[in-house]
Each structure stands twice: as structure tokens, then as C-alpha cells.
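Hey, quick one: can you model this chain's 3D structure?
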Amino acid sequence: EVQLVESGGGLVQAGGSLRLSCAASGFIFDDFTIGWFRQAPGKEREGVSCISGGDGVTYYADSVKGRFTISRDNAKNTVYLQLNSLKFEDTAVYYCAAAWDRPEVVGHRPQEDLYDYWGQGTQVTVSS
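Sure thing. Here's the predicted structure for all 128 residues.
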């Protein structure tokens, strides 16, 4: 059974930091790009970052570049998203998802329709 489980969300003041984790099981982790998406209240879900399975190629949306860092530990089947300098507008439910490594996925902004497996999400709330 494929599972993606996010953790690490919470309530933090603006300027603070959180580290999100995405623990995966049930598929060949090294062959998959892991993407992070977020959905704020009343807004569509957006892709913010991803990291490929093979070479660790990363992508960051402009809105998080320089503040968020994605990494992966293939030995632990886990991807991390370090969130620094958090802003009120980062408040959202954050989801991780997995997509088989392929050209349209690796190094590109995560698109929902290209990702096969999804976690349940973790809430990040930034107080201003």
C-alpha cells in the first residue's frame, strides 16, 4: 500500500521556521520526484517545490525561493521541506505528493495532474 505521511506543521509567528517531513512507503522511493503543494483558504492548490529521485534536482516557486529548502534522505524514504522566514501568506495546508521521475516533472513547478500519490496534508499557520 502506497502511503505518504506529512508531519511537522504547526502554529508559528511571522519570521519563524518549521520543518515539514514527508515519509513515504509502498513504492520505489528513489524513482520518484516528491513535490510539495499548499492550499490556502479560498485558494487553489499550488505547487511550491519538488526534488527528483534520481539526481536530487530541485525546483522552487518564486514565492518561496530563498526561504524554503527541500531535501531528501533516500535511506529513510523521507523528504523534508525547511520553511524559514515564514510570512502570513504562507499559511496553508501543505501536501506532499509523488510522481515518477520523468522530463515533464523533474525540475519543473509541481502540477497536480502529474502526481500519482498524495498525503493527507499538514496545517501550517503563520501569525502576523
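One thing worth noting: The chain has no helices and eleven strands.
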